[in-house]
Amino acid sequence: MTEDLRNKTCTPCRGGIPPLAPEQAEFFRTEVPDWRVEDDAQRIERNFGFHNFREALTFVQAIGELAEAEGHHPDICFGWGHATVSLQTKKIRGLHENDFILAAKIDSIFARPAPA
User: Fold this and answer.
1) Nearby residues of 14 by Cβ (< 8 Å), 6 or more positions away
2) What is the predicted pLDDT for the residue at 7?
3) Do 49 and 79 form a contact (C-beta atoms < 8 A)?
4) I need a labelling partner for 110 at 20 to 30 A (CA). Which of 32, 52, 74, 95 fits?
């Protein structure tokens, strides 16, 4: 299903729907195995490592462009050699398929070779 997630587009969430149940979140999480389900299945998070600040910054900038294109925005904390990305659908205060779609796409960005 990972390939399917990468090919999907985040759909606007206007609220009024329940967040994924913990079992549903775990089902999707198996498709992005490096991500952790946190806060009683209310968000997912992943830590990324880099060789320097520039690589981390470039990665965060790429995530920003992706987030704008998808209309779904993560929380990101980064510094020299690291970035932590946290995803949650804020309108429903929990997880939605969109979070896993964006996680799969972020994994694809991380898997790309760093620019020289």
Assistant:
1) 91
2) 79
3) no
4) 95
Number of neighbouring beta carbons within 10 Å of residue 59? 22
Joined together, the tokens standing for residue 106 give 């972020």
Residue 106 has pLDDT above 70, yes or no: yes
Residue 18 phi/psi, 5° resolution?
-75, 150
Q: Yes or no: is domain 2-9+19-111 CATH 3.30.1360.20?
A: yes
Residue 54 DSSP SS3: helix
Specify whether the CB–CB gap between 98 and 67 falls below 8 A. no
What CA–CA distance (Å, rounded) separates 38 from 66? 23
The C-alpha atoms of residue 49 and residue 69 are separated, in whole angstroms, by 24
**Torsion sign across C-alpha atoms 18, 19, 25, 28:** positive
